[in-house]
Amino acid sequence: MKPIKPFEPILTDVIPKGDQWIAQVKWDGTRILAYYDGEKTQLFNRKKNERTKQFPELLQPSSFIRAKNCILDGEVIAMQDGKPSFYEVMKRDRVRNVDKVNQLLQEIPITYMIFDVLFIDDHWLLDKTLQERQQILRDRITENEVIRLVESFSDAESLFKVCEEHQLEGIVCKDLSSTYAVEGKDSRWRKRKKEQDLIAVVGGVSLKNKTVNALHLGLFDKDGKLFYIGSAGSGKLTAKDWIAITNAIEPIISKDKPFFNQIDVKDGVWLWPALTVKISFLEWTDGRTLRHPVIESFVSVPLEECKLE
Q: Which of 177, 193, 209 is the last residue of a domain?
């Protein structure tokens, strides 16, 4: 089975209304498609990068789905303090050493939140409606401590308020009549976030007592020029993480500022663009910088994908 790029929602500020719309919690994890051919199971993320070794809990689909083969779509999440933590699940996602994976099975348990099925029993379901695909999941999936079906709600506004109250990422609204568009991204699926996020390039850092304590962030324009969009020093990184970052930047320190536009940073250390990081923020300012940026996690994303919209 060749991996495919999954259907993705567009970002919206307006929650759609109408009987054809359902809403689901937008779980803050990593998108994973599970491919089961009846014997072998492989896991791939939305960029079609394999993650089979990272999540061995999901490699026995016969224990939770009645099917001779299938392709499932969902989100792998890890909990911290009662909430999904992108930072925690990334610790699992980034692991390459199998022995380390076995250690993290106990330290960072995961849950696979399944919300779609693309293929089952030798038949593609891409042309079936979301309503039909959801019924197939309800008929075939048996939930357990690792496997959960994402619940759908008709009252999207109320669900979004609950997500805000519980500091969850937001909701995804889906048209029940929608078919599944491989490599697609359109308004039949819409995500409404509590806050926005993006993947930025680290173009420089600031130091305190010889340890990195802030990141200076940028995105590329259509001509490949790196534009400064703000600096972030708060977030989910630990003291140990900051020390690791301090050591990691040594080979990419540059004498030249990588940013094309002006940046008012004193005593900054400039870097060759190499590191990427997930940032959450409230909004863009009029000056095209991020308001209240928060560091979520370092991620492995190609630089060419870190672009200004």
A: 193
